[in-house]
Design a protein that fits this description.
alpha/beta; eight-stranded mixed β-sheet; 6 helices; globular
């Protein structure tokens, strides 16, 4: 119960501190906290595959924003996040432990779904429609309010299960 209360306080704090940009440090922090509720969560150094499409300006912009936020690596909780730029068709050949799908890809995101399932790697995004469609298992938003969405089928297909205590903090699809 202490963990849930701490998580909720953290989320409220992030909501007050985060601006309205496409992706923010607050989004990443919420995602990492949510990853802590995975059964057997990742720890240590984690290469984050920032998945983008070069021909979609919004996707490229968000990829650069994420790369700037992460810099040469960013410590968040017990994880050290290191960005690795991954073109939308490069998921299968990437060496990452987490996919972060940028916004605006629409149906072009399908190759990532396949890679996520094959490699058993969770996909996180701020593009909530990709969670609803089942491309990504976890969606987070820190502005204008904290939102955490989980697509259970996408999570299961990627070999990811969440602790039961996580259910009361999420919207499930």
């Amino acid at each position: 119960m202490k963990t849930i209360a701490g998580f909720l306080i953290f989320c409220l704090t992030m909501m007050l501190l985060t601006s309205a940009q496409a992706v923010s440090l607050g989004d990443l922090q919420i995602a990492v906290r949510a990853l802590g509720f995975i059964n057997n969560p990742p720890t240590g150094k984690l290469n984050v595959g920032v998945v983008y499409a070069a021909d979609i300006p919004g996707s490229t912009q968000e990829a650069h924003e994420l790369q700037t936020i992460l810099g040469n690596g960013l410590q968040v909780g017990n994880l050290f996040l290191k960005p690795v730029m991954v073109p939308i068709n490069g998921g299968d050949s990437s060496t990452v432990g987490l996919f972060f799908l940028t916004q605006g890809l629409g149906s072009e995101s399908r190759p990532l779904l396949s890679a996520s399932e094959k490699k058993r790697i969770i996909c996180v995004t701020t593009d909530i429609t990709q969670v609803i469609k089942g491309v990504c298992a976890l969606g987070v938003k820190s502005y204008p309010k904290i939102e955490i969405l989980v697509n259970r089928a996408a999570a299961a297909n990627s070999g990811i299960t969440f602790a039961s205590a996580f259910n009361m903090m999420i919207t499930e699809y």
